[in-house]
Amino acid sequence: MHGMKIIVPPQITGAFKMRSGDADKYSVGTVAVVGGSDRYANAPVMAGLGARVAGAGLVSLVVPAVSRLAASALVPEATFARLTPNCIPPRADVVAMGMGLGVDTNSEIVVSRLLSGSSGKFVLDADALTILAGWYGKRDGYEPAEKQELVLTPHEGEAARLLNKRREEVSANRLACAKEIASRYGATVVLKGANSIVVPPDLGRVYENNTGNPFMALGGMGDLLAGMIAARWAYLKCDAFTAAASAVWLHGLAADCLAAKAADFSVVSTAAQAGALRVLLDSGRNELQSGG
Asked: How far apart are CA 44 and CA 74, in angstroms?
């Protein structure tokens, strides 16, 4: 583990169970990623990469044709469906959506079709959050459908839109705003940034992350994290809070491992981070399981 002592936070000590000897690609969790546009062709692919390296047994990408070249290089194991307003994502344990999706009418149709009355588990990131904020940011909030579970992953700007506040208000009151979003949208919230905050909709727990470093300030890191959260949730078959908090912790820890051994901090890229995460989960599984 690059000489680093790993101490698993008490809130997530149960999040690193060993795979059973008879595991198959379905039993360890399936993830569908919905996103992408001409401008942001690779965003959902990075989410798919995050899902794969975080342990998803099967990743399905619902993406525009322009995304397929990057997908074939970064996530060759994934299956594909073409993103259209009327597309039906493949069945999956968790659906992650919004990365690079855009906020036009067709994108709103996609988000609406997936969420309206749907049961299941959803990780909403990036443009899906902006669309959600456009519908509910000035109202009383969103009430998930029966048996629908949500994880929202806003940065401070997206959090401000979800609450119809100024970004400065969110920056000054991060924990309070994370709790307000969780309560208002009935969701587990990951408020990203230095010391990311995770809170569940019942507000009964709080996780403030202490892994990560400033070299993670790079486009694509949030996409990678969204896929990781989806994969941990699908694999662990646990509550959303534990899945999200463990993914946030691993995401930062992988970057810390890279930075600890690097003379050039530009190596903290999404691809390198994905590789470091795979090493953590493979070679460090016994340490993670035992809490260091």
From this structure: 11
Nearest CA to 154 out of 120, 187, 126 is that of 126
What are the pLDDT digits (tens) for 143-202?
999 999 999 999 999 999 999 999 999 999 999 999 999 999 999 999 999 999 999 999
User: How many angstroms separate the first and last alpha carbons of the chain?
Assistant: 11
Q: How far is CA 289 from the centre of its chain?
A: 22
CB atoms within 10 A of CB 13: 16
Quote the tokens at residue 201. 């909709």
The 10 Å CB-count burial string (b at 16+, else e) for 257-279 is bbbeeeeeeebbbbebbbbbbee
Confirm if 94 and 54 have CB atoms less than 8 A apart: no
Residue 72, classed as helix, strand or coil, is helix
Q: What is the pTM of this model?
A: 0.94
Say if CB 243 and CB 233 are below 8 A apart: yes
Distance CA 244, CA 228 (A): 8
Rounded Cα gap, residues 171 and 218, in angstroms:
19
Sign of CA dihedral 20, 23, 27, 31: positive
Q: Are 107 and 15 in contact (CB under 8 A)?
A: no
- Token pair 């000054």 is found at 172
